[in-house]
Amino acid sequence: MVESTKKDLQIFGTRAIIEAIQAGKEIDKVFLQKGLHNPLLSELNTLIKKNGVQTSHVPIEKLNKLTQQNHQGAIAVVSAISYYDFEELVNAVVETEAAPLFILLDQLSDVRNFGAIIRTAECTGVHGIIIPKKGGAPVNGVAIKTSAGAAFNIPIAKVDHIKDAIYYLQGSGVQVVAATEKTDTTLFETDFTPPTAIVMGREDSGVSPGVLKIVDKQAKLPLKGSIASLNVSVACGAFLYEIVRQRS
Q1: What φ, ψ does residue 157 adopt, rounded to 5°?
Q2: Res 48 pLDDT > 80
Q3: pTM of the model
Q4: Which of 1, 19, 58, 175 is 20 to 30 A from 207 via CA?
């Protein structure tokens, strides 16, 4: 069965979720009841793992809060948008744009920050946003509302691993710049006029160490106060408008 809420589209019931995944529906996350075991649920689990769908095992009380319907211990949240194929997106942008601009989100977790980044990205001419299939904030109703609808106007692609996406971008002639405080180079000293992808990290820990090792450049925002860092969506906005300034 399918239920539309003010925030998201939900599919509940094990068989309905199986059919939705097999039909190619974009599933943001599946909530499964802790401790529940049956053959149909095993089939769903196999399908979830095969398709890399993000899953969370929760108490039945959590499921009952999500819907009043008979959920059978399984609820799926369907994506509100259609995601682009990553390689096709990069190839198309590189072929048609003189100065491609992408954003990679490395495990960003807050949907409101995600929505704010989408909004600013759309306003600054970003050609695509790349997110991980697992571990990142979903494009749900809250993110779309925060983006002021910009999520429908900018390509968003999901990838299995951010590192692989970086290697592909680099191989396509796109420099990858990590926004991080772990450098002495400011964004004002960084040349953003070539084809560029900006990496923004998780709210509490920033860009992951493994990603920092493989990017082409690192850049930071100069901070004059006592607070050690900016909100990630604000920092992303500062980076994007410096890019706009340099390219104007």
Answers
A1: -120, 145
A2: yes
A3: 0.82
A4: 58
